[in-house]
Amino acid sequence: MSPVSHSFRVLVASALLAACVAVGAPAQADPVVATPDVAAPSTPNTERCPYRSQPAAAVDSSEVPPAGQAAPAPLPVPDPTVGGERLSACGVVTAGSPNAIPRGITSAGWLVADAGSGAVLAAKDPHGRYRPASTIKTLLALVALDELDLDKVVIGTREDYGMEGDSAGIGPGGTYTVRQLLQGLLMVSGNDCANALARELGGYDVAVGKMNEMAHDLGAEDTRAASPSGLDAPGMSTSPYDLALVFRAALKNSTFRELVSNVSAPFPGYPKLADVPGDKDHPGYLMQTQNRLLLDQYPGTIGGKTGYTDDARKTFVGAVERDGRSLIVVQMYGLNEAGDSYWDQAKALLDLGFATGAQASVGTLVSGPAGAGASTSPSASAGADRSGNLAYPSSPDGPGGSDWTDRLLFGGIGVLVVIGLVYAAIRVNRRSH
Question: Which residues belong to the active site?
């Protein structure tokens, strides 16, 4: 059995110009363009903090709010910076030599940290706001591990079966334990598993609300989940720093470590579909991990979580252990390039981390919410609400091309001036790996 994908394409033509005026806050940036900076010619330049308060403009219709609802305002920007003042930088910060930063890193934001001590060893735009794609499934897994019985049996539904994007293969009437759903969630990024787990946690909005509560409890103040699976939806954001926080917390759970370390695992089948003439029972199959660090046997790999949507681009969070030292790597808003795969980039960043002294640090992964003395930037004060009410279910858009859909952009302190409204060929098919 192969992962299930659902797609369709809709084309709409129009042309107008959109712009936004921001007061007291950085303006929404154009999509990342590969420009030189200290790290490498292929690394996007983030020195001017284009993603300080929110991600880049969406490229498809995935973040259009339901009719009659406004998109959530960006989350506040904490002041002082969570984890230390050096992490407020939007360019590269490193505890070692800047000349040691690997070339060819395509991610706009990345981070390498010591999972044991919490020391951040090197980073680029560590608190920049990016879309997580399926890396947010680590947060859903943490909530499920905290609240659900691993041996509880869950019955697959037609809604699970119909989820867009990657699928572990849930079918209506199939029976799955919570453990198996978590394995499918983390190994093959099953959006069907995310849907089933969210249902067991109380439903879509309740599950997203619990994910956001846990993010806050961990000190992940750049994070707002807007879907259980990581499919793009209004208000979704996280940062390299926050993904490292979440993954560090997850690594402390022995079940999570076991699940992400598996290269393969069985997944149950399901009965034939009564409404499909001639259908037969669907047998179980052996899932294979999407994590090439495991498949390539990169020394000491513990495990990780991949992600991709058209808006998020490639994302990854993972951990490697050598000689008693565990490192976490995070990559966000990146790309594969010819001769420079995302996995090669991950390995280069991890090699950088292991070559950096154990006592070095440019900041710290915190162990809880920001202190009572911390304030928030007025540039996004209206975005503090993390409730599940901000989580709009993603409509099943399908695949698209390379056209850009302009968005209403958010200005500071709630001032939004729209000079034009635009839609160019709406692309569909948001994939979440």
Answer: 134, 137, 189
